[in-house]
Design goal:
By secondary structure, the protein is mostly helical. The protein is 43% helix and 0% strand. It is built from eleven helices and no strands. The longest helix has 16 residues.
Length: 224
């Protein structure tokens, strides 16, 4: 958080001073001599330089920043000042989102408690803050930097795709279609067997003993 301690006694000249910054070129370094050159020669004006540093218009070495150059564009000057105020006086915006003169006692009390200052210095700091508020646009200045949008990962859509049988009913095997029955396995076939076809040619004879001898031999050697 932040609460700028900078203040000036010439608060009524703050608006004219910042308008003067838009008229001429930005110097390489904003010095007290440059302050005199643009029409602010009094010792009371010197406090304008630390005020500009607290608003980040100048670096600690007095070099104009990008905010200084952006403020020179009159079309966006009030918005730039609003951004500067939200940065330099963020503690006050915690008390009231849009401080007004009705909140002066709260704001002076904040300055007084933070810096253990006298009533007079706390009032001067509050006067400086309200003078800057008069040339700022808080409605169009960001309250905080938005977080970058998060991207939804598409890995869940590409990794580990479901089997085709679960995504496409037409690609399911016949045995897995709804309402179908699994066909029974084919019956086991009998083991192969050998068959012999024996032909016997009997001789033409009237002797029965010959036939008896042949059949007896068949019984002994084949049937048994």
């Amino acid at each position: 958080m932040a609460l700028s301690p900078a203040y000036v006694q010439v608060n009524r000249q703050i608006s004219d001073f910042f308008s003067k910054l838009q008229e001429g070129q930005a110097p390489d370094q904003f010095t007290q001599q440059h302050l005199k050159d643009i029409g602010y020669p009094s010792s009371s004006h010197r406090a304008l330089i630390p005020l500009m540093k607290s608003l980040e218009f100048l670096t600690p070495e007095g070099v104009p920043t990008s905010r200084y150059h952006e403020y020179r564009n009159r079309a966006q000057a009030r918005r730039i000042m609003g951004e500067a105020l939200r940065g330099a006086y963020s503690d006050l915006f915690l008390i009231k989102e849009k401080p007004s003169e009705d909140d002066r006692d709260l704001i002076e009390g904040k300055f007084k408690s933070t810096y253990n200052s006298t009533d007079r210095i706390a009032k001067l700091r509050a006067n400086t803050f309200f003078a800057l508020m008069g040339i700022a646009d808080l409605d169009h200045s960001p309250k905080s930097k938005p977080s970058p949008p998060t991207k939804t990962s598409d890995k869940s859509k590409t990794e580990n795709p479901p089997p085709a049988s679960q995504t496409d009913p037409q690609r399911q095997p016949q045995s897995q279609k709804p309402g179908s029955q699994i066909p029974p396995p084919p019956p086991a076939s009998d083991p192969p067997s050998l068959h012999y076809n024996i032909q016997i040619h009997l001789p033409a004879t009237k002797d029965l003993e010959v036939y008896n001898a042949i059949f007896k031999s068949l019984k002994e050697h084949l049937l048994e």
